[in-house]
Structure formats: C-alpha cells, structure tokens
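TOKENISE THE FOLD
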Amino acid sequence: MGRFDGVLLVSDICDTLIDTSDGAFVGGDTGELKPVSEQDRRALEYFTAEGGRFTVATGRGLKYILPYGDSIPINAPVVLGDGAAIYDIKSGAYLELAVLDERARELGQTLLDRFPTTSATTRHLDGGFCAVRPDSDIRMLMKLDPEILEVTSLLKAPTPMQSLRFSDQHETLKEIHDFLRTQDTDGAYELTFTAEKRLQMTARGYGKGNMVRRLAERLDISMEHVYCAGNGEDDISMLKVAKQGFIPYNCSQEVQDCGASEAGSAGQGLMKNIIARLENRY
C-alpha cells in the first residue's frame, strides 16, 4: 500500500498550479503553455507514486488541458468548465455533464426577444464563446479575443452550452431573473448574479464543488480524504467541500475567508508544500 492510497488532490490550474499572473503562455499568446515548476512536478510524481490520485479542476476547456497530459502526473478524470463536466483523458470520454439543454437555448432566445436591450454570451466546453447582440463591454472582449463569434440568434449558437450570460442594467436583469424562474418550473437551471450587470444561467449541479463530490464518488474516495487547491471565487465551492482547502498567497478577501489555508506561492512550490502537509496526516 502507498502512503496516499485513497487520497484525492484536486488543483485549479491558473494562478494555482501554474503562475499565470503575466499570461498562460511562454512568449506571449502564440507561445507554448507555461509548464508546471520542476519542484511541483516532482512532488506530484511522488504523491501519485505513493497511491494518491491527482487531477485538475479548471474553468478552461478541453483543448487547454490536453497539452498538459504528458507533463503533469494526472491519474484521475479532470473537471472542466468550472464544473460543467468530468472528462476522462484516458478513455477520451465525458463521464459527467452539467450543461444547458436545448430548452435553455430556446428559452434564452425567447428572453432576448422579450428584452430588446439585453445582450447574451454563451460559453462552451471546447473553450469557445458566442455573442448575441453584444454590448460595448462584450465588443471590447471580442477585440481582445477574436475567437468570440457573433451570431444573430441563440438558436445559431452551438450546443451544448456550458453557461449562458445575460448583460443589461441590474433592474432589467432582476426582471429577467423573475421571468426565468416562472419558466423553469422543474428547477433545471441555476441563476447567479456574477456582477451588477451580469446574470449567469447554468444547469442544476454545475460548479467545481459538485463535480469534485461526483468525482470522489466515482473513485470511491471519502470526502474525508479529498483536498483541493484554488485561488479564485469559482474555486470556493470545491475549497469548502474538501476536507481541507489550500490557497496561494494574495488571494482576494472572499477566497481568504472561505476557510482554506495559505500554502505558498502559485506555481512556485505550492503543490510541494501541500503534499508536505499531507505527509503529516498520512
């Protein structure tokens, strides 16, 4: 038996496993993805050699994860799209999905027809985005990211959709929120104000915390032996469900207040420090 048999460690990638404070790529956006530091890679190799299960949970899509397959000792399915899916790299299959269905797309277009000042963006598991009736903020994003496609209708956006975000004045978004609640009679969707002028619609069960729970169940690992690391507000749900959450220094106050422990600097020995702490427990 290995020291870490029955232990699951899940880490966010950006500004946690890897320091992406100045970008995710070496040499600019056209360069190679930044590698995991040598000290963290060695620590993870030790952890997995001793029976531990390691994986990542990221907001990014599959195409961002696959290049890391040979350089990080990932030996468990990965969580993608901020908790929209669990994907098994070995089999090349999605094991769990919490994505919006066709009814959500149709409902979203009905909403856009009803509220003519509202903009919408869709996010997809492959990392792509679509924009319908983009406002000035979305137009600015489109200039920075030419891969954001503009479509004339949500019905022309590809499926499945990871999430659907509506942009408008807050008072209008409250009307939209109430309208969606009346239409969603079976509680299939979750609605979250992500900002004053942003309302996000996701499938029920969406989120890193929920998917980490499902992953642990698949691996037959008790949540008493699940540990998570992350730096952002989208990581809070998994930091809270873990037996212990770990965060790098200099996180936002909201992340610091979630009960996780600081364990070092992102991409600079954070995994090494976490695994050293786990050695004291197992």
